Amino acid sequence: ALIKFRNGTSRLLLATDLAARGIDVPALDFIIHFQLPPKEEEFTHRNGRTARMQQDGTAYLLKGKNERLPDFISDINEEVLNGQNQFEDSAWITLFISGGRKDKISKGDIAGLFMKQGQLKKEELGMIELKQDCAFVAVPISKSKNLCNQLNNSRLKKKKVRISLLK
User: Fold this and answer.
1) Share of the chain above pLDDT 90, in %
2) What is the DSSP letter of 120?
3) What's the CATH architecture for 1-89?
4) Is residue 136 within 8 Å of 101, Cβ to Cβ?
5) What does pTM read for this prediction?
6) N or C: the chain end with fewer CB closer than 10 Å?
7) Long-range interactions of 115-124: CB distance < 8 A, separation 24+
8) Where are the domains of the chain?
9) With contact defined as beta carbons under 8 Å apart, do 103 and 135 qualify?
């Protein structure tokens, strides 16, 4: 779930307060507080995920009609939700590759395979995440099935790799 969230193929991640402290995501466009933390430091930490490294982001609070905000929350713009705003699905999907670092495969090898044999343009190749024994790459949904069919059982270094959709 975190791999898909980091590379943009999954646009929403629901997390408990415990997971919200330990997730490795560089920057978020927005966060939504479904349940407010009791302490200001926790609130600040959560909101900080939207403003890392000079990034912009927005923190939203979901509040019931009779719910009271803690004293440490002030100067907010209130908006009534009417259900008309739609959340757009991602145009990207994640592919699984059955080889990784232990097979001496690099991100450059994967990029080369997808750009040369898969004929993707640079802007059509999303984030590549390389693990010890596998890898993940984000590609446009519209090209994913063709890429799986075309590149499955390809050779990366000396390893024949399987490429499939990550579900």
Assistant:
1) 45
2) -
3) 3-Layer(aba) Sandwich (3.40)
4) no
5) 0.79
6) C
7) 117/150, 117/151, 117/154, 118/143, 118/147, 118/150, 118/151, 120/147
8) 1-89, 92-165
9) no
The tokens describing 164, both together, are 């499939």
The answer to whether 86 and 153 have CB atoms below 8 angstroms apart is: no
Q: 92-165: which CATH number, 3.30.70.330, 3.90.1150.10, 3.40.50.150, 3.30.70.1150?
A: 3.30.70.330
Nearest Cα residue to 95 out of 6, 165, 15, 45: 165
Measure the CA–CA gap between 133 and 162, rounded to whole angstroms: 12
- The first and second tokens of residue 131, run together, are 């693990």
- The rounded distance, in Å, linking the Cα atoms of 33 and 43 is 9
